[in-house]
């Protein structure tokens, strides 16, 4: 309520500068050192009874209650009644003024609405800072801003504007009720109540008074009320009495005592001191819980699922471990597989990653060593004797087959004879080349010896006219053949057959020479043919010359002749 000059108007005390129409409800006016409280409604009701008399008895300088009306002629009885009531009222008013001079009467209120608490020092309600006493007041990354009678949860990007204006003059509670509040800014929900007691922040998303205040699209506008809720007019010689947990500062302000910093708390050594407004609290440090009077470690590993694989409890905390082949992810909780083939490939040749581990493999021709990492060459030649027909040569990761001189490798493993007679040979013009398994030989194109003469290729005939031919075979035929060493026996190797058949003759076959060791056997298969059979295994290289004779005799015994087939058998040095 604005202060004005008070004039004693008899029955009522009326402030000069205040319009009469605003005087409703309960008001307090300070006159000297006295506080007079009255109800305007009661005064208006009483004034109806006395308005006629008061209109005529208003002292100079006081405004009339109404425009005087024509009144009936006064009588003696009403004047006496008015005089008595006036004396009685003045007497009561005098007694009240005298009593108020001895003891100053103060109206106090000890009950506060939600969000406020009674301040015994200032004798009024003050705002509670919920952001200070409510743990985790705001969630989701919001910040807590204290509000009159509550608090706000604002985004961290909210703009906070501090009002650096001078503190407004304190207004009594009764004037606050009249709606005459002043100040830089107030929330829209408090527009009807005027000044809100206490300090803190006031926020509004609407337009805010003050040239320096701006509102963003998504930001709250926040202004600091500069008035200190516990400020007391500075008076160095004046000692104030602060509540428990507070102390007087050099500016005569009751400020909180930080018992945790001052060391005046009684928390145990295993506890943490938390300073509160006017007090303190003893809490267990993070990772501990109170059990009785002691703080004991919380075994986080006993409450799944903290860790993905393995949990290791430590005093006041814990950490996660992973099994071999895994590593902790960025969240320090999940275990992810380690690709050992990319990170640190230990395999000598091929690496395959599997969940939690890896395996090594070797290329063809190698095998894993005992350490399961390196690869060792496989000696294929030692594992089998049938890989190559002649000779196996081991190489790193593979093997190669080789053949002896006179042979060539076919299909990687088999040895095939090289026909030198078709490629290159050293035989003379008068010689013929004969290829055998693993080599070749040169034989004379005319093998006939005296008294035989060459009649056709490889056929020598002894003329009848020559007396030397009477005891010799009539003809000698030269044949050549090649066989492999260690040939399976018995084996048919050569067939002999008569080229000329005479009537009434008998043919017999025999081995005339070259079978001293009994390696061969001649078996007659028909009257005109026979088969040479190998009965003993031969090992080369070696050359055998076997004469196979066919005797022809007529049935009456008057004619006898023979023919020889000189067979040259060349045994190769190998079984292929």
From TrEMBL:
Keyword line: Calcium, Disulfide bond, EGF-like domain, Extracellular matrix, Glycoprotein, Growth factor, Repeat, Secreted, Signal
Cellular component annotations (GO), alphabetically ordered: extracellular matrix
Intrachain disulfide bonds: 301-311, 341-351
Molecular function per GO: calcium ion binding; growth factor activity
Annotated SUPFAM superfamilies: Growth factor receptor domain
Domain EGF-like per the UniProt entry, residue ranges: 256-296, 297-336, 337-376, 377-416
Tagged with keyword Secreted: yes
Domain of life of the source: Eukaryota
Localization: Secreted, Extracellular space, Extracellular matrix
Region annotated Disordered, chain positions: 54-74
The keyword Magnesium appears for this protein: no
Subunit structure: Interacts with ECM1. Interacts with TIMP3.
Similarity comment: Belongs to the fibulin family.
Function as written in the Swiss-Prot or TrEMBL entry: Binds EGFR, the EGF receptor, inducing EGFR autophosphorylation and the activation of downstream signaling pathways. May play a role in cell adhesion and migration. May function as a negative regulator of chondrocyte differentiation. In the olfactory epithelium, it may regulate glial cell migration, differentiation and the ability of glial cells to support neuronal neurite outgrowth.
Protein's name in the database: EGF-containing fibulin-like extracellular matrix protein 1
